[in-house]
Write a structure and sequence with these properties.
The protein folds into two domains: 1-184, no CATH class; 186-275, no CATH class. It has 13 helices and six strands. Helices cover 63% and strands 10% of the residues. By secondary structure, it is of the alpha+beta class. It has helices at 33-73, 78-107, 112-116, 131-139, 141-147, 149-157, 164-169, 177-181, 190-200, 207-222, 231-244, 247-250, 255-274; strands at 2-4, 16-21, 24-30, 119-123, 171-175, 280-282. Helix 1 runs antiparallel to helix 2, helix 5 crosses helix 6 (149-157) and helix 10 crosses helix 13. The model is unreliable at 1-15, 18-26 and 276-283 (pLDDT under 50). The strands form two sheets. It has a four-stranded antiparallel β-sheet. A two-stranded antiparallel ribbon has the order 1-6.
């Protein structure tokens, strides 16, 4: 088995094995610190957007209620009302902030930000995360994120690059380059792409011709604001694709599916050409 390792992530290149059950185990790579920071920033942006909408509704309801209260009771106990509002404000923030991390990590194993960068939270020596582990690592997130230094020191000094919350909860954050790459698929899912690729085995497409077809497919499937193609032009594009994917005709693949797969194939090969050469590490 071979995989390509990014030199910038060499300090995180040591693989670790976790037992799932007797006789079966899986290898994981500790998540690079920069990817964890960026994924957390994405999560915070999502949380802030939700809080923004929530607080608009929250304050409209609160001040509407306060107006009614003042008319009925001459606004006695104003200090108490302010205390209640601040309490509700803090409580709603904690519920949304903590609830976001606990829910996604317990149900999915990752937050939206983590998924975007191929990160996942896994339990040590357990097949899956428990609710108590998710709650514990979330409670310590305040220390790790607000104080910063303890969390960074913990990540730097531990073998699996665990922050304090991970150490207490018995978890760690792992990275999968394959999962991160899934976010680059536009026209078909990774599963569909690999299934079609194995069945059709397309020929290598020159970069200029890949770019031409990508321009067509983007206007046809993504923006949907391009020119209106005539039946004859569609046939020309189909003949173009069949030149590189001759097996498609024998397998009876319809034109739309063929175009979508070929567009993804062109996209992935163009992206691959843009990547700098990297050393291979054999396992």
């Amino acid at each position: 088995m071979t995989f390509v390792q990014n030199p910038a992530e060499s300090s995180y290149g040591s693989y670790n094995r976790i037992a799932l059950f007797e006789g079966a185990s899986v290898k994981y790579n500790p998540a690079p610190l920069m990817k964890r920071i960026i994924s957390y920033s994405v999560d915070m942006a999502i949380i802030m957007a939700v809080l923004y909408v929530f607080y608009i509704v929250f304050f409209v309801l609160i001040f509407s209620g306060a107006a009614i209260y003042s008319k009925l009771f001459y606004y006695r106990g104003g200090d108490f009302m302010l205390f209640v509002i601040l309490g509700l404000f803090l409580l709603s923030f904690l519920l949304i902030y903590d609830g976001y991390f606990i829910y996604f990590e317990y149900k999915k194993g990752f937050t939206l930000g983590k998924k975007l960068f191929g990160l996942r939270v896994v339990a040590l020596n357990k097949p899956r995360l428990t609710l108590s582990q998710c709650v514990l690592r979330d409670l310590f997130r305040i220390i790790d994120c607000l104080l910063i230094v303890p969390g960074l020191l913990s990540i730097a000094l531990t073998k699996k690059h665990q922050r304090l919350g991970d150490l207490v909860a018995g978890t760690w954050v792992v990275y999968s380059r394959r999962k991160e790459a899934e976010g680059s698929f536009i026209y078909v899912t990774p599963e569909q792409y690999h299934l079609y690729f194995e069945a059709l085995r397309p020929a290598v497409v020159p970069e200029d011709e890949s770019q031409s077809f990508l321009a067509f497919s983007h206007s046809e499937f993504i923006s949907k604001r391009g020119r209106t193609w005539t039946p004859g032009e569609y046939q020309e594009w189909e003949n173009f694709v069949l030149h590189y994917v001759p097996q498609a005709k024998a397998r009876g693949l319809d034109r739309n599916s063929l175009f979508l797969f070929f567009a993804e194939y062109c996209l992935q090969t163009v992206n691959l050409r843009k990547k700098p050469p990297q050393p291979e590490v054999k396992l």
